[in-house]
Amino acid sequence: MVLVVVMGVSGSGKTTVGSRLAAKLGWKFYDADDYHPPENKKKMAGGIPLNDEDRIPWLCTLHNILRREDLSRQDAVLACSALKKMYRRVLVNGASAIEPEQPGEKPPLKILFVHLDGPIDVIAGRLEKRRGHFMPPELLKSQFDTLEPPSAPENFITVSLEKPFPEIVLEIERAILQGEALVE
């Protein structure tokens, strides 16, 4: 059973890569943007970056979705920015990542984080072409400022977003199947 979080800044291709990976492997796919409360979407649409207080309840909701899939032994892919180490800890541990000693605390989820990495100018070009998304291109710099790329001991791989999407999906699939990043 594998849980994968495809992460990166807005415009890095998380939804495209995550949905293609899930479809190719026959896994469930979730887009974290679908779970933002209306207040968060309104802030972002107004050009106001989200803060930790905005994100933590949303991340706890996403953790609960991943926990449910884990309990049902369902492989799943989540597209989620997961920009800070603390945010990734919440995805792995739920509320116990920020509130110690939760009653009935469950073991951490085993998640492979796939960081889609690339230069700001390439991503800005993608955002300029994107239509109908609540995240305006003006917030891209704040996302890069917030980004804390994954590092040891986190379970992650970094993939260049400058490759064609099919190559990116294949690279992630190979990492999962080779056990390089297996999280059983």
* Rg over alpha carbons: 16 Å
The spatial strand order of the largest sheet comes to 2-3-1-4-5
- Average pLDDT level: 89
Q: What gap, in angstroms, lies between the N and C termini?
A: 6 Å
> How are helices and strands ordered from N to C?
EHEHHEHEHHEH
Count of helices?
A: 7
Main beta sheet: 5 strands, parallel
Helix share, percent: 40-55%
Strand content: 5-15%
Uncertain regions spanning at least 5 consecutive residues: none
The geometry reads as: globular
- Category from helices, strands and their pairing: alpha/beta
Q: Count of DSSP E strands?
A: 5
Give an account of the 3D structure.
With 184 residues, the protein is α/β, with parallel strands linked by helices. It has helices spanning 14-25, 38-45, 52-71, 85-93, 120-129, 140-146, 165-177, and strands at residues 3-7, 28-31, 76-79, 111-117, 156-160. Strands 2-3-1-4-5 form a five-stranded parallel beta sheet, sandwiched between helices. The mean pLDDT is 89.
